[in-house]
């Protein structure tokens, strides 16, 4: 049951603009999956779904691209990225409110070799880099994807 429910969730999120868990639950019921809210929350976490800001000022569930997250970053960064500053092997990225977590998830998914990991708040991401020498390279890559270079 779980694999077919996960497949249905992924299909719904890829084909519909889903703004809330409740709406996702309603769409799943229409497809024959009567799922409890707690189960749906676990499924969302297990599938790695993220909520990203949309052009209407709200947010929608999306699947992060596990094969190549660069297109996801290239779509998100022009709208969400505001600035970067860093010292040593730490780079802080600023985003629009609500943008930090989906951007950090996409960066983590990209598995950039220079990045050990990310920590995201609401509008701030801390990137921990493997070496101070990577600071300018990663900042330039982010700014290029954001369309600033």
Write a structural description.
By secondary structure, the protein is an alpha+beta fold. Helices cover 46% and strands 22% of the residues. The chain folds into two domains: 2-62, Arc Repressor Mutant, subunit A; 70-145, Gyrase A, domain 2. The protein has six helices and six strands; from the N terminus they run αααββαββαββα. The strands form two sheets. A four-stranded antiparallel β-sheet has the order 3-4-6-5. It has a two-stranded antiparallel ribbon with strand order 1-2. Helix 4 runs antiparallel to helix 5. 25% of the residues are buried.
CATH class of the largest domain: Alpha Beta
Q: What share of the residues lie within helices?
A: 40-55%
Characterize the largest beta sheet: strand count, sense, and whether it forms a barrel: 4 strands, antiparallel
Give the radius of gyration.
17 Å
Number of domains: 2
Low-confidence segments, given as residue ranges, are: none
Number of strands: 6
Assign the CATH architecture of the largest domain: 2-Layer Sandwich
Query: Whole-Å distance between the termini?
Result: 48 Å
Question: Mean of residue pLDDT?
Answer: 88
Helix/strand-derived category reads alpha+beta
Across the major sheet, the strand order is 3-4-6-5
| Percent strand | 15-25%
Q: What global shape is seen?
A: elongated
The CATH topology of the largest domain, please? Gyrase A, domain 2
Q: Provide the succession of SSEs.
A: HHHEEHEEHEEH
Give the helix tally: 6
